[in-house]
Amino acid sequence: MGNWFDEASRLKRMLDSAESESAVSSQINVLEDALRDLKASLAGGTQAPARDSHFNYSHEYYAGDRPAVITTKGITKTYGDYNANDGVSITVKKGSIYGLVGRNGAGKTTWMKIVLGLTKATSGTVELAGGEINEVRRRIGFMIESPAFYDNLTAYQNLVYRAKLIELDDPERAIDEALEKVGIPEKKNAKVKTFSLGQKQLLGIAAAIMGDPETLILDEPVNGLDPVAIVKIRNLLLDMNKKGVTIVISSHILGELQKLATCYGFILEGKLVKELSEADVMNGDVNIEDLFVSLAKGELS
Ligand SMILES: Nc1ncnc2c1ncn2[C@@H]1O[C@H](COP(=O)(O)OP(=O)(O)O)[C@@H](O)[C@H]1O
Ligand SMILES: [Mg+2]
Fold this sequence. Notes:
Blueprint: H1 4-17, H2 21-42, E1 62-63, E2 66-79, E3 82-93, E4 97-102, H3 108-116, E5 123-128, H4 133-138, E6 140-143, H5 155-165, H6 171-182, H7 197-209, E7 215-219, H8 227-242, E8 246-250, H9 254-257, E9 263-268, E10 271-276, H10 278-283, H11 288-295, H12 297-300
Parallel strand pairs: 4-8, 4-9, 6-7, 7-8
Antiparallel strand pairs: 1-2, 2-3, 2-5, 9-10
Helix pairs in contact: 1-2, 5-6, 6-7
The structure holds adenosine-5'-diphosphate (ADP) and magnesium ion.
């Protein structure tokens, strides 16, 4: 297998163009083979996609009062001559909801992808608490940008794919629970091509929360959701957080973010320009939108 991501993209195109049930099921077999290869490579083969030498990890990295779950130091990601991330050092503490704020193109998605090992930093380090970095990454639930699904497969079939990847003991139960929590249990056996934009987004969130991860990374999760779904997802995330789940969430919708986040990082043109700790948020009467607009003033004028 070549680059597994290219391979997955190729398979997705094949699946999307499959016209009959049997064509779909034969594609599923191909997918399962690809999945086995991917697992083998993650388990230590030569093709491990997320094993980057400059990453390291620590079991017990403490920052202040609570242990850090994610620590990035001086992350820089250069595309051509542009730094999509420019020396970003962020510490996400256990049990927090870290709100990542920034305009389009500020570098939020880039930072999340680097933390998850989906893309490589040009320089800087990522530390994830709790074990070997690729192992910890596999246990992080995430949704990055618009979730990609196989249109010709059902919600259930799509989620099984991820459930197998993260080796859940009881995939069916985990899938049922996740679909129930995001409010689309009736969509379990519907093909993704019949989903609305918002329903796809909810399926992406279901994939992220499946199997009760201890850490969640969500990139603009409420984009495209209707008001009822927004409230449902907000309550779901608050409930998970109460049970100890650490969450990193980026959003443009600052009013919504403010109902969730316990601390913030503001990114402007690849640079982390300000952070608000939990103490800052609790002690001050901060309006995130006002603060953000004033930080971005230099850019706006
Ligand atoms: N694969 C890529 N190739 C070139 N430029 C990229 C790539 N991915 C992101 N960028 C650029 O990096 C910057 C940050 O992008 P991104 O992290 O997606 O921002 P955000 O998520 O905050 O909107 C943008 O200028 C974007 O155009
Ligand atoms: Mg983004």
